[in-house]
Amino acid sequence: MLFWTLMFLCIAIVAGLLGFSGIAGAAAGIAKVIFFIFVVLLVISLISGALRGRAPKA
């Protein structure tokens, strides 16, 4: 999921540099949503791991 966030971020940056404001805005919005979903899943994973008593694997 983090891969897709970075891909949409790159698309937004390239589209913004080329002047495609609509595409850049849409790609940036999608990247933002996917990033926040990733962060929420990370927090849920950390909390569930802490409740189970396991140490995080490095």
TrEMBL record:
InterPro entries listed in its UniProt record: DUF1328
UniProt xrefs under NCBIfam families: PRK13682.1-1, PRK13682.1-3, PRK13682.1-4
Subcellular localization(s) per the UniProt record: Cell membrane
Any matching Pfam family: DUF1328
HAMAP family reported for this sequence: UPF0391 (MF_01361)
Keywords: Cell membrane, Membrane, Transmembrane, Transmembrane helix
Organism: Shewanella gaetbuli
Membrane topology, from the record: Single-pass membrane protein
Similarity section: Belongs to the UPF0391 family.
Transmembrane feature ranges: 29-51
Signal peptide bounds: none
Cellular component annotations (GO), alphabetically ordered: plasma membrane
Protein name stated in the entry: UPF0391 membrane protein L2672_08320
